[in-house]
Amino acid sequence: MSRVWTVLKREYLENVRTKAFIIGLVLTPLWIGIVFFVPKLAKDEDRVERVLLVDETGVLAAAVEKRLLASPEPRFQVETIPASGLWEETEEGGTGFDRLTLRAGAGEALIIVLTAPALEKREPGEDENRSLIIGASGFRAARTLPILSAAVNDAVNAHLVESRGIDPEIAALLQRPAVRTKRVDESGKAAGEASLLKPLIFMMFLFMGIMGISQMLINSTLEEKSNRVYEVLLSSVSPLQLMSGKILGVCGIGFTLLLLWAGGGLGAAFATGLTDFVTAGQVIWLLVFYVVGFLFIASLMVAIGSACNTIKEAQNLMAPISILLAMPLILSMVVLDDPNGTMARVLSFIPPFTPFVLMARMANVPAPPEWEVWAAFALLLVSTWFMFRMAARVFRVGILLYGQPPSLKQIVKWMFRSPD
Amino acid sequence: MRDMQAGSQSNGDYAVRFENVTKRFGDFTAVNGISFQVPQGSLFGILGSNGAGKTTTIRMLMNIFRADGGTVEVLGSRVSDALKPRVGYLPEERGLYKKMRVLELLRFFGEVKGASRADLDPQIDHWLEALGLDGWRNRRVEELSKGMSQKLQFAATVVHKPDLLILDEPFAGLDPVNRDVLRDAVLEMHRGGTTVVFSTHVMEQAEQLCRELVLIHQGTIRLGGTIEQVRASEGRQAVNIRYQLRAGQTLDDLPGVRAVADHGNEAELTLTAEADPEQLLTALMERARITHFELMEPSLHQIFKRVVGGEG
Question: In sequence order, what are the residues at sequence separation of 6 or more whose Cβ sits closer than 8 angstroms to the Cβ of residue B172?
Answer without folding.
Answer: B92
